[in-house]
Amino acid sequence: MSASAAPRIVYVNGRFCPIEEATVPIMDRGFLFGDGIYEVTAVLDGKFIDNEPHLARLDRSLAAIGIKNPHSLAEWIAIQRELVTRNALKEGSIYIEVTRGVYEREFTCPPDIAPTVVMFTQPRPVRHNPSAVTGVPIITVPDLRWARRDIKSVALLAQVLAKQAAKAAGVAEAWMIEDGYVTEGASSTAFIITADKEIVTRPLSNAVLPGITRQTVMKLAAKHGLKLVERLFTIEEAMKAQEVFFTSATTIAMPVIRIDDTVVSGGKPGPLAQELRALYIEAVDQQLA
Ligand code: PDD
Known about the structure:
Blueprint: E1 9-12, E2 15-18, H1 29-33, E3 36-44, E4 47-48, H2 51-64, H3 73-86, E5 92-99, E6 116-123, H4 130-134, E7 136-142, H5 157-168, E8 173-178, E9 181-185, E10 189-193, E11 198-201, H6 212-223, E12 227-230, H7 235-240, E13 243-248, E14 252-259, E15 262-263, H8 271-288
Parallel strand pairs: 7-8, 7-14, 11-12
Antiparallel strand pairs: 1-2, 1-6, 3-4, 3-5, 5-6, 8-9, 10-11, 10-13, 13-14, 14-15
Helix pairs in contact: 6-8
The chain binds N-(5'-phosphopyridoxyl)-D-alanine.
């Protein structure tokens, strides 16, 4: 960071401070056990996209692991707003992490220890992401994760390994495969579009994270009369699909042009995937207006 750059301000346990001053004790259970959850909301024109569903999922993840939500919805939003303002963030994302808190390293701890709450912003292109213009290649990896993937757990070792493998292959995303079926991307929801123009994604279950962008894309598709099917699909079907894309808060709908060594979607972003991306951005602009 150059001397003249504005300091990056983060939030930790009730305090806004420069990132250099923000610390969490080594006995934090997030650090020791991955005992915590997180949430990511995209920011566009300084405003949040689909923030309330993200905060509802945060509440659900906390409840699923027995941590009392330390803030009301209004309090969460107020902290997020303050952080975005202090960092003058126009476009990017805001990350929230809540861990069970700090205690001697023992597998269990009393139920009433104070959770650790951390929040920071990350600038990145959301609206004009160059990858959405070209489409992106992806790889496949075995899904090595635990059985409660519906919880947005900070224990992301399997996803880190998947992303490292993707990076080594020169690509940005990996789709995880279980019993021959695609579960989801390492940090995204997987979609294919069949020759009959059916938009296919895996049904919600403990096997996948209930993606907020998935939900919005499905609502938009239904509103515009597109056919939607929630079912399992194999990686072979994805490789033969008319179009392939994935969704997440930060990538919106991202067209896929190659899976491992197989070119998909004619090697260019598919028209329906592009349309869904455009509809999403249009809907966001209306939300922001
Ligand atoms: N990841 N599946 C997984 C495993 C994810 O980690 C994510 C998001 C999604 C998409 O969810 P949503 O549409 O609500 O962002 C699906 C975030 C962005 C991350 O880990 O950075």
